[in-house]
């Protein structure tokens, strides 16, 4: 008999796993001060997350089929607990780098099975909504952790805010709940290595999500140092929440639009929202920062994310799993590499110049990708029309 509460319990566990990822984000500048390091080191520690998640997504794609779905979620929750305990016991930029790598491994394990597991737990008539459940729960978690820590820091500076202990409590509860979830599919032999691929026309969508998540990475990893100049570092977690979790509000609209249209709309919003966000951070205008973050989230986790993923799945036909891996490979490259480069420029020329150069690159990239996407979309439409006309002529003969 199917447990009707199982999908909600899995969604809760996924939210707690991703909640831990940005739990320490508002404290990055404090960790850097303790370690005597600058923006580059902060960006490297932040990007250690990607060093954990990418190998799991690329090399262990078949692990869930071998050991089952539930053990993957249990392992991810356990790693999130270890990472939070590490941040509490050894508060420094070095330990945060290790903690974020563990969180990356955990997120990779959860991502490898979350959508499939959710579809197996949902009733057959609702299995198509599995991706929406996973997207909503993880998007909420990624932003909520940073917001909770910022809320705790408003009461005063601390390296062990109450949000850390709250996560440990909720993660322990999630472990108990997940342990009782059913395992609908028996473990089986499967190929472990599933390399990504890029079907014709899909690479442009991968480049779009690379730009979008580069903006998210910059807000999460480097913006706290800019806000600190105006005594606003305690609010950096709310900017992270806005740039990630608020994108959920725009996903219903993104689903109604054609994939290419949704991505083009996101590319139009992205540089404008970043300009407002960066201007607000530089001037100490908190409202502008939060509004810019919400607007950026509509592009990053709304239009570009859902539109791009839907387009890649449509173009992939029989290679959906590998094509999706290729899409997320570029997404996580965007989430890490531009942040490190911007941090290097910030240490060299100052954060104001670094933010300006990032904005110029973001604008140029958005225009180039929009042009390429429009050209590809028009070519596909033309090809479909020619194919339709050819079939019509055959029928008339």
UniProtKB/TrEMBL annotation:
Domain Major facilitator superfamily (MFS) profile: 6-397
Alphabetized UniProt keyword annotations: Membrane, Transmembrane, Transmembrane helix
Topology of this chain in the membrane: Multi-pass membrane protein
Subcellular localization: Membrane
Superkingdom, taxonomy of origin: Bacteria
InterPro entries: MFS, MFS_dom, MFS_trans_sf, Sugar_transporter_CS
Transmembrane segments: 39-60, 72-90, 96-118, 130-156, 162-182, 203-226, 232-250, 262-281, 287-312, 324-345, 351-374
The protein, known as: MFS transporter
